[in-house]
């Protein structure tokens, strides 16, 4: 009993620890600029959220909304397509025997160790050769790659897609591609959600790539846009409230993605553990 | 035979000239020797700047110059990533034609050979006299026949002070640094701090050293010399160390809400800052509207007339730009024309680097936050009193970082400002050497 109370206390403390910054952000975003520096940081002053939101979406012809849309396209699009690619690749590595299979897998696995940050500059130089920097594709294409997803997909495909089922499908005359999309993906679904979420977060947080690639404000993801504003606060202090409110709005898609997908994720992790 | 040879020679020359116009060309040497208008056809220029709302200013140019269209690219401020991007782009050969570079970062681009020398560009050489002398030195580094950017804005320094508090406490406004210390003691007795010493704004400290006649860097054409311990700098460091030791100044981290609050609540009574600081106070300390005023910086000798500078940037043309002439034409318009300067001031609070800039209508009016004082008159005067021969070094980012670490330690009682400068000296020299930049010792 005693240990349970202690555990709850620790859990409570860590919950508090993680939630306080978000609470601070929320409270901060509801204040006017004057109140923000002069009133208590963790409690409300005059409720100004509506006003702040209005300023945020109308500043510079609504460039913030454009950034949100970009972020969703970059992350959502890349995560969706990247998950399909990773699933196909992992599945092929798990289910087909061919020469060099282990070599390819090991190379992919090595890719997990290379941080995305280290690749940003070489990618910039490559895209420069192609005259393709400062375009949507310069951020989108590199974001499709997800070696960790391939690894997960292979492990999961080995564990959850029975050989016999594939044999049966072949005997019934289903082509390999059809078998993959109609049968295997269904079996791998929980793993795919996990891969999707990991990929989504990774692309969302990959800040350096757009920072290096993009110069056109209209192509920025929301992270880069808010960061740029934040560096201009000294010059244009009214941006401070926009940065705060923008930061609050920008975490909503992440929260939504997690809330919507967490039940799949949990079942994915759980069933993987049992096998 | 001779004729054929010369034809051959000219054609090879023409070929090299053509090929040097290629895309991946970073080594084009359009030095000070040539800068002619492009022949025929409209020209498109890329311009990277993080000035808020710069697009609105550029639009005015684009509307009236159909043959020279400028495309704006933006990003975070220089040290926030844009400088690194410039270096990457120079390496990849796709740097923009023009870029915003602060004075203290200009030398690092110069030593990497990333800047076009604009001395031969007529729009630039014609406009020289319009700029305040010291700003021109910031972009020419004192070299003969060299201009590596067009001065954009300046940050002449003055003393912001709480008029109401000084009057109430019956303290005279300090005109010398000696009086400033005396005032600091009285302010402490009245329950406040005379100012907040910034532990991370090394360029503010540089401004203070600049006023005192310090010289941190010098370049004799072949070697750099580094000196953070000259007499003037040591004097300034000893002075502030004394205030810190006696706890006459507060030391909250600058640019935080805590710091804003210190000014908003009247805990800090003065701030020795640049012209753009006027806006930092009015936005950070909104409850104190009408209670501030501006006076010239305290002097080292009674009756002296010197000022420091904090901040300021230039518009530079990058090496490899195919249209240096048009680029310089735009840069001059951006930084000298009445309409552009007015817009830059209105949209981004820039204080012009030109002599006539001080007469902009927006800068000749009283400011309500400062009790309707015409504060910009004080800054215009200060701008004319900034010493012309202060040079920045090519490794300021790392210098700032080291000095700032030392300053942070000093305000919490570990070591002194002098120690911090000593450390900055060694790391800066090491840093220059590691980049194979020749250093005189």
From TrEMBL, chain A:
Residues 68-260 form the ABC transmembrane type-1 domain. InterPro entries: MetI-like, MetI-like_sf. Its main location: membrane. It comes from the Bacteria. The chain crosses the membrane at residues 7-26, 72-94, 103-127, 139-157, 187-207, 239-261. It is found in: Cell membrane. Keywords: Cell membrane, Membrane, Transmembrane, Transmembrane helix, Transport. It is a multi-pass membrane protein. It holds the Pfam family BPD_transp_1. PANTHER family: ABC TRANSPORTER PERMEASE PROTEIN MG189-RELATED, ABC TRANSPORTER PERMEASE PROTEIN MG189-RELATED-RELATED. Belongs to the binding-protein-dependent transport system permease family. This is Sugar ABC transporter permease. It comes from Actinoplanes palleronii.
Automatic annotation (TrEMBL), chain B:
InterPro entries: Bact_solute-bd_prot1, SBP. Coiled coil: none annotated. Residues 1-22 form the signal peptide. Keywords: Cell membrane, Lipoprotein, Membrane, Palmitate, Signal. SUPFAM superfamilies: Periplasmic binding protein-like II. It comes from the Bacteria. It holds the Pfam family SBP_bac_1. Gene3D superfamilies: Periplasmic binding protein-like II. This is Sugar ABC transporter substrate-binding protein. It comes from Actinoplanes palleronii.
């Amino acid at each position: 009993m005693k240990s349970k109370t202690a555990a709850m206390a620790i859990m409570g403390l860590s919950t508090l620890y993680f939630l306080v910054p978000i609470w601070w952000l929320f409270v901060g975003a509801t204040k006017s600029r004057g109140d923000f520096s002069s009133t208590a940081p963790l409690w409300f002053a005059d409720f100004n959220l509506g006003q702040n939101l209005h300023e945020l979406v109308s500043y510079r012809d609504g460039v913030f909304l454009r950034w949100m849309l970009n972020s969703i396209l970059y992350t959502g699009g890349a995560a969706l397509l990247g998950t399909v690619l990773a699933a196909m690749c992992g599945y092929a590595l798990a289910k087909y025997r061919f020469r060099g299979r282990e070599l390819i897998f090991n190379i992919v696995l090595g890719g997990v160790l290379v941080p995305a940050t280290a690749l940003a500059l070489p990618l910039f130089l490559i895209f420069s050769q192609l005259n393709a920097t400062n375009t949507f594709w310069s951020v989108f294409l590199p974001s499709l790659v997800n070696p960790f997803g391939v690894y997960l997909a292979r492990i999961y495909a080995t564990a959850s897609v029975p050989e016999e089922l594939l044999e049966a499908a072949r005997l019934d005359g289903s082509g390999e591609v059809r078998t993959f999309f109609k049968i295997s993906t269904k079996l791998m679904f929980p793993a795919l959600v996990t891969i999707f979420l990991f990929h989504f977060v990774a692309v969302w947080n990959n800040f350096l790539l757009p920072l290096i690639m993009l110069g056109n404000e209209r192509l920025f993801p929301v992270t880069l846009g808010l960061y740029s504003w934040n560096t201009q606060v000294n010059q244009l202090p009214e941006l401070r409230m926009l940065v705060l409110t923008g930061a609050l709005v920008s975490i909503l898609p992440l929260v939504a993605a997690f809330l919507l997908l967490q039940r799949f994720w949990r079942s994915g992790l759980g069933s993987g553990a049992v096998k | 035979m001779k004729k054929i040879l010369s034809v051959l020679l000219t054609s090879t020359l023409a070929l090299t000239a053509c090929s040097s116009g290629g895309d991946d060309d970073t080594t084009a040497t359009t030095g000070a020797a040539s800068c002619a208008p492009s022949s025929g056809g409209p020209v498109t220029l890329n311009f990277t700047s993080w000035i808020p709302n710069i697009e609105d200013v550029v639009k005015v140019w684009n509307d009236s110059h159909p043959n020279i269209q400028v495309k704006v690219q933006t990003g975070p401020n220089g040290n926030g990533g844009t400088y690194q991007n410039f270096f990457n782009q120079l390496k990849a050969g796709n740097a923009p034609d023009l870029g915003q570079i602060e004075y203290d970062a200009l030398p690092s681009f110069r030593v990497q050979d990333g800047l076009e020398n604009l001395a031969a560009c007529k729009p630039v050489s014609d406009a020289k006299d319009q700029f305040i002398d010291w700003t021109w030195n910031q972009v020419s580094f004192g070299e003969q026949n060299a201009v590596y950017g067009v001065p954009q804005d300046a940050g002449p320094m003055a003393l912001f002070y709480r008029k109401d508090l000084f009057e109430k406490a019956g303290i005279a406004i300090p005109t010398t640094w000696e009086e400033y210390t005396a005032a600091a003691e009285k302010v402490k007795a009245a329950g406040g701090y005379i100012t907040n010493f910034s532990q991370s704004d090394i360029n503010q400290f540089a401004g203070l050293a600049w006023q005192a006649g310090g010289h941190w860097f010098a370049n004799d054409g072949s070697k750099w010399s580094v000196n953070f311990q000259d007499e003037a700098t040591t004097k300034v460091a000893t002075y502030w160390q004394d205030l810190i030791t006696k706890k006459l100044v507060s030391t909250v981290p600058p640019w935080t809400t805590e710091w804003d609050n210190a000014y908003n609540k009247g805990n800090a009574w003065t701030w020795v800052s640049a012209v753009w600081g006027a806006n930092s106070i009015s936005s950070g300390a909104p409850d104190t509207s009408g209670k501030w005023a501006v006076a010239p910086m305290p002097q080292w000798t009674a009756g002296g007339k010197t000022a420091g500078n904090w901040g300021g940037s230039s518009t530079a043309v990058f090496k490899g730009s195919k249209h240096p002439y048009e680029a310089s034409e735009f840069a001059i318009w951006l930084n000298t024309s009445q309409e552009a300067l007015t817009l830059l001031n209105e949209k981004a609070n820039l204080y012009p680097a030109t002599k006539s800039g001080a007469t902009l209508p927006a800068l000749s009016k009283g400011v309500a936050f400062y009790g309707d004082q015409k504060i910009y008159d004080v800054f215009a005067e200060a701008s004319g009193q900034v010493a012309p021969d202060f040079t920045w070094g090519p490794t300021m980012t790392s210098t700032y970082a080291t000095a700032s670490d030392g300053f942070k330690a000093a305000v919490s009682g570990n070591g002194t400002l002098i120690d911090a400068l000593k450390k900055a000296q060694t790391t800066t020299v090491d840093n220059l050497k590691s980049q194979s930049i020749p250093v005189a010792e």
